[in-house]
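Continuing the batch. This is chain 6 of the set; chains 1 through 5 are on the previous pages. Same settings as before, nothing changed between runs. Recording input and output for traceability.
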Amino acid sequence: MRIRNIFVVLSAVLFIGILMMPVFSVYAQTNNRNSSSSGNNNNNNNNNNGGSTYAGVRVSPQQVLERDIAFDYGRIDAARINASRTMYAQGLSANVKAQSPLRYVSLNRLEKAIIENNNVVTEEMQCLAGLQRIQYVLYLPETKDIVIAGPAEGWFPGYEGAFVGLSNGRPVCELQDLVVALRSYPAGKAGAPVVGCSIDPTQEGNVRLQEFIRAFGHYGGPERYPQFIAGLRNALGMQTVRVDGIPANTHAALVMVSADYRMKRIGIGIEEPPVPIVSFISKAKPGAKNALYRWYFVPDYQAITMSEDKNGIELSGAGVKLVAEDEIVSAAGERSAKTGKVDAASKAFATSFTKEYPRLARKSLVFAQLRNFVDMLVAAAYIQQQNFYGEAAWTMEFLGNESKYAVQTYTAPSSVEPVVGMAVRGSTLMAPIGGGVEIEPAVALKAENVKKEENAAVSAIQNKTAAQISALKANQWWWD
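Output for chain 6:
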């Protein structure tokens, strides 16, 4: 069979939402949460001299993003995992180890506890007492506490570089990511308009790509496929990794980049997902030449419910949704929006990915961590929007200061090799190439996404929390 046409798809991955994380080997994280460290080294020391590995992705010392399958989807020695779980279970207190449907963390009390602990962040503090999602964000005027709450349990260092629950294996929320979110929406300053990342070909690379396609010709058989794919990679060259809204050398930034990269690989058929997902390439049909198909995440809450006094919100729903957008690349390498409908294959992939996101997040933890970061960004944006900082007179003197609590300690990725897939449809050879991420935190808090509580449900949680907090010990910062 001879291929009469060559159809190249430049597929990009774009994120619009509110939040995101980094890359570690299974046991490396225990070194990053050394409870005896303090000052600038209080939370992370992630071996920058040797790069970072996390969620099946590695950032080399040269800041190049690479695929590392050694820790893919938890396919590591189960005996090591079980030994780690047993060891950690023995070391945790009974209270923090217990499963809790709703665990509360006072952010300003937590900071005070750190300061009183000589600026040492313990592992319990770094893991936010095992909190696994943010379900409520509350402000208590009587005690001036800013509180987050959600399900929680004890933890241990599991796979894909995450601390995970002892029984359910879900990743915990991490203080370092929450701090990145809070610093992005500080008191008295404008918040970041966009938090996100982008993995994009350069304009020069797009020009070289199209020149290569023209020079290669329109005829050939299967024996020419490897030559064609290699030529595409060489012509496109290294793609640029850009992080917006937060420092690129943070755990949260690496979460975004890692999730974007993994999602892109699934979409173009390079990586097999742990749950059934309709890939773009499996449904793609020849259409507009040199089309750039962008996939991006947005917050996906069924609703954000607000209390009558606006001092509390409840986040409910999956948290993350994938949507599709199409562009065209010109002969000059420039990108422009397409008019008309979104490509059917691109839409099918986005729909399938969204539908399976909860199951995918349980199997591939980077997507669960991304969802947690989205929760954090929404929470941080709401704290700023309602001026809880001012109401509580909370200046984040420790957590807001990089010299006291360092979060910019990771290797920031700056480039990645293009990922190219291949499929044959009739007489057309299709070769998708990969993409980017954007996140707009204000989207989830728009008026149309926020509803007032019914039956005073959120207010009831506020009242319960206010009663509980009055009975806390002086240095207690979390409770069930």
